[in-house]
Please model this.
Amino acid sequence: MAGLNVSLSFFFATFALCQAARRLSKALLSEGTYASFAREVVGAAQLGACCLEMQVLVELGPWAGGFGPDLLLTLLFLLLLVHGATCDGAAANPTVSLQELLLAEASVPCTLLALAAQGLGMQAARVLTRRYWAWELSDLHVLQSLMDAHCSSTLRTSVPHGTLVEGACAFFFHLSLLRFRNTLPVYRVPLTALLVTFMAYTAGPFTSAFFNPALAASVTFQCSGSTLLEYAQVYWLGPLTEFWPQMQPDHLGTAVHTTGSPLLAESRSQGPGTHSRGTSPLLRGSLLTHTRTCWHSHSSMHLSRYAS
Model:
């Protein structure tokens, strides 16, 4: 259990440092810079670091530490809960930023800045976590340091099947976000965490259930076993297939028309986060306008091998 205690300490330290970084960024940066860049960097780094450490427990824990699926699933669920409570609304997922762009809820410069921030945060998490492994504080980290240079692909199925799995996970994940957008956080966060945990359990043996292009690029693109083109098709194009209905002309026209309608202007004139009682149902249901949660990351912290 010593290895588990070291990993738990890593999780607590990650959350504490990221929370301190958020507070420092809020104090030093303007609100716009924090919301569009710093918050995304910290949220992505938090997600990426926890995912990498969770990967160690999943791949090495069952045979090196005696960890069972029940322990790993419970730990994943708890990590998702804490991540959801601390991310401060960061998306940490490129598909969420692209969805907001398609729905005319974000400008092109803001979207590009968010994508850059997410990629930067994920890569920073990878570099710092590997340095932490090099300290070899536990037997699991000793093994991970030896195996890190020869990691194997998380894609353990055919490319078409993997693309379908990642697309289906992304679809159900975003559908749940829309379904729970008006639910109180005390219910929404556990429900979303439960869904992500379930998808990590069912889809993990095939693709590790990332449904987050930035997270997948940071965790598995450097590993042997699949080509860069195969990785891109599964982990980038797969989650993007959920946008196909939104890219239809009728849907885009409705979104743009709604964004530029007088009703929206009236709602904004009342202040952020408020709506007129006379606002149309379509406007009240504007996707993700006031419901950004870090579960967009969910890019789940994957459970890959124990279900096999």
